[in-house]
């Protein structure tokens, strides 16, 4: 934006890892008159949401919808299934892993933490080894993040399930899929997850303020003995009222209008196409970064995140100053830095309602901003991303023709 202007023209390039850009169609769906949340029209809307969200988590069980951000659904997962003093095994893959652990502490649980250098996802072998040692079965839950948003690493959930089974351990598996759901494949039932935690403002392309718990039969059974205090987040009231079409309290009606449309849009594109698009844009982003000669925080390709890539700034260059300059000049926002990477990295979100061309806008803006900020890079990153996208589409076109 020009220094003497109070308006930045065009669309803001919102490349934070949530809230992500909300499609106009969802905005229009939300922009609708209030309805009676105990009336028949609401029951119909609610059914669309409750049935639809199951297809996103890939579960046959009920999914609970909370009027709260993802943090609320984290809390719900813990308080509905556990008792004060229970030991939980958590992995500090980054800032979000750390925050969930702090929550467990505050709630009176006993988190035991597997630490990482914040540059890799969760290694299933470490989970298996720890569970094998736990002969007295003190650990009641294993809590992992599918996608660690603060550093851009993804963890292999199906393999973590296998690791728990290989150890023959009865702990519940709880998975935070807030920044991966509806962006990359996720299978609550097939992967044997007990509680999956989702949020609205990332892959679901919604405003913030709604979150989810998908639950297994085993998690539901655990509620019978779970002694943690809970009220707003209690699953049982929700399940009872949802069965007859309603909520125990006034739900976020407008958000449900949005959610119904979000789910429709995801299926119109096709979930597998949505996932392929995220993989493609993630790879294009990484090619740009590598061409610039910058370092990706995730140091092992098997953990690369399909939704967010964190970039390490070269020594002597302040990532926050860079973000401020890019915002001022090119109207683009990136994810901020946390903890041990404070001021040292910026994160490029490539999730939600983004396409190849809008992603290229972001990568071109990033290359220009890096040059303006005098960060020592090799130019041609945006070109490398374009070359990759052309080849990816070329391959798809050839396949279709054959
Ligand atoms: C965004 C996010 C959260 C927190 O969700 P809020 O909606 O901000 O409460 C938790 N975990 C992960 C992995 C996230 O990306």
Topology of this structure?
Layout: E1 13-15, H1 24-30, H2 40-57, E2 63-66, H3 70-81, E3 87-92, H4 95-106, E4 110-115, H5 124-133, E5 139-145, E6 147-148, E7 153-154, H6 157-166, E8 172-176, E9 195-199, E10 211-215, H7 217-222, H8 235-243, H9 253-269, H10 271-292, E11 295-296, E12 308-312, H11 319-330, E13 332-334, E14 345-349, H12 356-372, H13 381-401
Parallel strand pairs: 1-13, 3-4, 3-5, 5-8, 8-9
Antiparallel strand pairs: 2-10, 6-7, 9-10, 11-12, 12-14
Helix pairs in contact: 1-9, 2-9, 5-6, 9-10, 10-12, 10-13, 11-12, 12-13
The structure holds pyridoxal-5'-phosphate.
Residues 18, 69-71, 96, 145, 147, 149, 176, 178-179, 199, 208 line the site of pyridoxal-5'-phosphate.
């Amino acid at each position: 934006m020009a220094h003497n202007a109070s308006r930045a023209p065009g669309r803001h390039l919102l490349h934070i890892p949530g809230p992500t850009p909300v499609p106009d169609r969802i905005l229009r769906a939300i922009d609708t008159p209030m309805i009676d949340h105990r009336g028949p029209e609401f029951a119909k809307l609610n059914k669309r949401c409750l049935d639809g969200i199951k297809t996103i988590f890939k579960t046959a069980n009920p999914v609970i919808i909370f009027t709260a951000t993802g943090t609320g659904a984290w809390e719900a997962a813990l308080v509905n299934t556990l008792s004060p003093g229970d030991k939980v095994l958590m992995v500090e893959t980054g800032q979000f892993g750390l925050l969930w652990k702090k929550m467990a502490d505050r709630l009176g649980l006993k988190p035991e933490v597997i630490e990482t250098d914040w540059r890799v996802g969760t290694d299933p072998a470490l989970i298996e080894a720890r569970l094998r040692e736990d002969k007295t079965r003190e650990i009641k839950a294993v809590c992992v993040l599918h996608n660690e948003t603060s550093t851009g690493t993804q963890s292999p959930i199906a393999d973590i399930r296998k690791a728990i089974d290989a150890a023959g351990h009865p702990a519940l598996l709880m998975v935070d899929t807030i920044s991966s759901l509806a962006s990359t494949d996720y299978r609550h039932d097939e992967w044997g997850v007990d509680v999956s935690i989702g949020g609205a403002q990332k892959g679901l392309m919604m405003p913030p303020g709604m979150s989810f718990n998908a639950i297994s039969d085993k998690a539901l059974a655990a509620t019978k003995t779970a002694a943690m205090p809970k009220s707003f987040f209690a699953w049982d009231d929700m399940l009872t009222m949802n069965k007859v079409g309603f909520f125990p309290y006034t739900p976020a009606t407008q958000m449900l209008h949005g959610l119904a449309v979000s789910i429709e849009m995801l299926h119109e594109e096709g979930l597998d196409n949505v996932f392929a698009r995220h993989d493609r844009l993630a790879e294009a982003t990484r090619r740009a970064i590598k061409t610039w000669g910058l370092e990706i925080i995730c140091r092992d390709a098997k953990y690369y995140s399909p939704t967010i890539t964190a970039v390490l700034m070269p020594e002597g260059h302040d990532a926050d100053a860079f973000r401020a300059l890019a915002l001022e000049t090119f109207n683009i926002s990136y994810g901020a830095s946390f903890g041990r990477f404070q001021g040292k990295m910026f994160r490029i979100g490539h999730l939600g309602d983004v396409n190849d061309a809008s992603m290229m806008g972001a990568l071109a803006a990033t290359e220009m901003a890096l040059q303006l900020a005098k960060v020592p890079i090799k130019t041609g990153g945006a070109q490398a991303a374009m070359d990759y996208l052309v080849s990816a589409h070329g391959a798809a076109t050839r396949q279709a023709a054959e």
